[in-house]
Every structure is written in C-alpha cells, then in structure tokens.
Amino acid sequence: MGTTQLESVPEPKYWHLKTVLSDALDSEFAVGEILPNERELAARFGVARATLRQALEQLELEGRLQRRRGVGTTVAPPRVGVAVGDYAHGWTDTSGEDTWQTVDSTEAVPPAEVARLLELAPDALVHRVRRTRMTHGQPLAAELLYVPAESVPGLAAIDTPSGLARARAVLRELRRLELEGREQSVELGSARADDAKELDRLPGAPVLIVTTRYVAEGRIAAVAVATYRADTCRLTFGDAAGEELLAG
C-alpha cells in the first residue's frame, strides 16, 4: 500500500482521517478482514497514533469496524434490522433466529436509578433475571430484568432460590399480568466488564442502553435494562414498525 498524507483541513484531523479510512474500507478491505496494526496505519496516513485511535473509535461507533477479543479490528458486516418491539421486551421469550435466552435469576438490591423507576425504597430486594439476546447465533444484547416481589406473588410457593429454574418461574408469573404500557429510554454508554464479556466485546466498547419500564395493573411491574452492541446497532423510528435497532 502507498503512503497517503493528510492535507491541512479546517475540521479535526481525526474526523478527516475517519473519512479517508472509510473510503479505504470500501475499496481495499472485505467484510471480516483484519486491519493492519495501529503503527502501520499511522505510518501510512502520516498521523499520530492518538489521532488514528480517535478515527478508529468513531468508525467503530458508526458500525464500520468491530474490535474482537483475541482477533483485532475487523471490517464490520452490513447491518440488518432487529426490532425493539413488544416481542423483544415483552414478558415472553421469542423463538427463531432472534431470541432472548434466559440465563439465571437471583434476589438483589437494584441500582439506585432502577429502584427509583420501580418506585421502591433504595434497599428493597427484587428478583433480578438475566437474559441474553441472540441473533443468528451471535450475542446482540445483555439484559437485566428487575421484578418486585408484589409483581409475582405466586413465586412464594416455588422453592428454587436462584438459577435458571427460578428465572423461568419469575417470567412465567410475570406473564400472568396484563401489560398495559411501556416507557422506554435510550442512551449511549460504554460496556462494563461483565457486559463486554457476554457480548464478546472489549470493556469500554460503545453500547446502547435501552431502559424499559413496564406498567401493569396500574403500577410499575418491572424494569429492564438491556445493553446492546452499539458498534453494529443504531436506533430508528417508524410509524409502522415502531422502534427498531439495526444490527450486524
């Protein structure tokens, strides 16, 4: 590969470099191909490695690149639609290529913000159900579903204190409630170590955090905090389809 020097431009150098790199991805690299290391790329484009990292981080955020454990930085595949609708954040799991997989459940004190959304005291115990969303066999999102005891009163008769059986029991009892509505918010964040491990990404990778508050029988029945991979996802809105996350 030849050497491409950047000319002086009014925009930040890393932003201009991002455009140059994007063109190179289109013309020189195939989907899944591993990029040269940072030293080689910085030398090719005549920039400092700090500038290069900023450009690479922006391309990752835009879904052009993926950083994978033990592999490196690769060219991301085209995005496909993954709806964030009733089936995705409802009481039931789905079947087929795109599905939530229930992992386990335990009693826990929720984070302060979740307790506030549930309208509970800061030290109140709730059922915390952990699920992973898969698409085409790959992890797309990790979710923690927080359920107050009063939302699943029938659970008192179940002896299993934790684990997969308990999680399924919580979801089964939750389905008995008639869902009246949902309130959702989305924010950009960085993957914590546990989320990064579940999503096969590096800690600090960009993520979309979708918080859903469920209303049933006139009260807040549960709160879900789902962490989506932002390197291959973006949120769109449509009158027909509702919210949609696009993911690769």
UniProtKB/TrEMBL annotation:
<feature type="domain" description="HTH gntR-type">
    <location>
        <begin position="11"/>
        <end position="78"/>
    </location>
</feature>
<keyword id="KW-0804">Transcription</keyword>
<dbReference type="GO" id="GO:0003677">
    <property type="term" value="F:DNA binding"/>
</dbReference>
<dbReference type="GO" id="GO:0045892">
    <property type="term" value="P:negative regulation of DNA-templated transcription"/>
</dbReference>
<dbReference type="InterPro" id="IPR036390">
    <property type="entry name" value="WH_DNA-bd_sf"/>
</dbReference>
<dbReference type="InterPro" id="IPR028978">
    <property type="entry name" value="Chorismate_lyase_/UTRA_dom_sf"/>
</dbReference>
<keyword id="KW-0805">Transcription regulation</keyword>
<dbReference type="Pfam" id="PF07702">
    <property type="entry name" value="UTRA"/>
</dbReference>
<dbReference type="InterPro" id="IPR050679">
    <property type="entry name" value="Bact_HTH_transcr_reg"/>
</dbReference>
<dbReference type="InterPro" id="IPR036388">
    <property type="entry name" value="WH-like_DNA-bd_sf"/>
</dbReference>
<keyword id="KW-0238">DNA-binding</keyword>
<dbReference type="InterPro" id="IPR000524">
    <property type="entry name" value="Tscrpt_reg_HTH_GntR"/>
</dbReference>
<dbReference type="GO" id="GO:0003700">
    <property type="term" value="F:DNA-binding transcription factor activity"/>
</dbReference>
<dbReference type="Pfam" id="PF00392">
    <property type="entry name" value="GntR"/>
</dbReference>
<dbReference type="InterPro" id="IPR011663">
    <property type="entry name" value="UTRA"/>
</dbReference>
<protein>
    <submittedName>
        <fullName>GntR family transcriptional regulator</fullName>
    </submittedName>
</protein>
